[in-house]
């Protein structure tokens, strides 16, 4: 499967028609697996991620929020709406809802609206290309509200391009390389860093030897498929699909099994904050 929700949703009917199972590492929109018995995922979903970030903001006393999303982008609009709903259910006030078009680079008009609404927090799930532009332009306009987003913002290029303006940005993600509670995760981090440091091209593309959550999820997705093939003792799509449905394996991002929709049964997210030019672990959040 793909890493992104939009392309995963688009590809879903093709996999289904061909009867080929797919396992998405980090596609979080519910529509990816909905009604498609051939699509699985190893990450948590946007309704959970939106709830996590809404609780994070509200518990920190941020009671007025602005939400900025990208028109036509399944991930951005979906996660933005899940945050909005959860935040309002907690008693938070949405003081501004803004949207932008794909390819936009000047966000000062919508950010002016946000500034006039005077929010405590801005939730802006978007791409790694858009993120530093939004962050820098918000700070240039004198907006002091906390800026938050989802898992796509755990990318070193955002820090590199936004610079000091990225300080204090918060996001939810699937994995923390400094979590020492899992020996399996520790072995993966050690091996992945050795791999990166042994190849200058990959090290540069990765933005250093940090281990992003999508890397850990990609590793888990690959190994889930391998384990399903072993369990099925076959490589045809129907046999592998059946094996995936009954699979229960330990991954570097936690235990992985699938519900009736093909979604991983995940109940925990990591919150990270950008501090001193790095992603720093803040806390974990679990669902009931």
Which labels suit this protein?
single chain; 288 residues; alpha/beta; Rossmann fold; seven-stranded mixed beta sheet; two-stranded parallel sheet; 10 helices; 43% helix
CATH architecture descriptor text of the largest domain: 3-Layer(aba) Sandwich
- Strand order of the biggest β-sheet: 4-3-5-6-7-10-11
- By DSSP (H or I, 4+ residues per run), the number of helices equals 10
User: What number of structural domains do the residues give?
Assistant: 2
Largest sheet, in brief, is:
7 strands, mixed
Helix-strand makeup class: alpha/beta
Give the SSE order as H and E letters.
HEEHEHEHEHEHEHHHHEEEE
Overall form: globular
What is the assigned CATH homologous superfamily of the largest domain? Answer: Response regulator
Stretches with pLDDT under 50, minimum 5 residues? none
Instruction: Tell me the span between the first and last alpha carbons.
Output: 29 Å
Q: Assembly state here?
A: single chain
The strand count comes to 11
Task: Report the top-level CATH class of the largest domain.
Answer: Alpha Beta
Percent of sequence in beta strands? 15-25%
Q: Please state the CA-atom Rg, rounded to the nearest Å.
A: 19 Å
């Amino acid at each position: 499967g793909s890493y992104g929700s939009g392309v995963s949703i688009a590809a879903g009917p093709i996999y289904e028609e061909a009867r080929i199972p797919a396992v998405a590492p980090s596609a979080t929109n519910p529509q990816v697996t909905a009604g498609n018995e051939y699509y699985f995922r190893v990450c948590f979903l946007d309704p959970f991620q939106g709830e996590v970030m809404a609780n994070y903001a509200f518990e920190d006393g941020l009671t007025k929020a602005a939400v900025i999303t990208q028109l036509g982008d399944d991930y951005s609009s979906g996660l933005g709406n899940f945050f909005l709903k959860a935040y309002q259910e907690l008693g938070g006030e949405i003081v501004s809802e803004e949207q932008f078009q794909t390819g936009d680079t000047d966000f000062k008009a919508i950010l002016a609206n946000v500034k006039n609404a005077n929010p405590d927090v801005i939730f802006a799930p978007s791409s790694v290309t858009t993120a530093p532009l939004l962050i820098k332009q918000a700070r240039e306009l004198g907006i002091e509200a906390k800026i938050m987003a989802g898992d796509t913002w755990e990318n070193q290029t955002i820090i590199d391009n936004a610079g000091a303006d990225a300080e204090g940005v918060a996001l939810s993600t699937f994995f923390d390389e400094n979590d020492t509670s899992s020996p399996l995760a520790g072995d993966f981090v050690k091996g992945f860093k050795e791999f990166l440091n042994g190849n200058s091209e990959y090290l540069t593309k990765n933005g250093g030897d940090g281990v992003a959550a999508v890397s850990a999820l990609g590793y888990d997705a690959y190994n889930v498929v391998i384990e399903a093939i072993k369990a099925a003792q076959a490589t045809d799509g129907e046999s592998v699909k059946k094996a995936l449905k009954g699979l229960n394996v330990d991954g570097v991002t936690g235990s992985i099994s699938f519900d009736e929709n093909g979604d991983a049964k995940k109940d925990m997210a990591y919150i990270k904050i950008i501090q001193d030019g790095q992603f720093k672990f803040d806390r974990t959040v679990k669902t009931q």
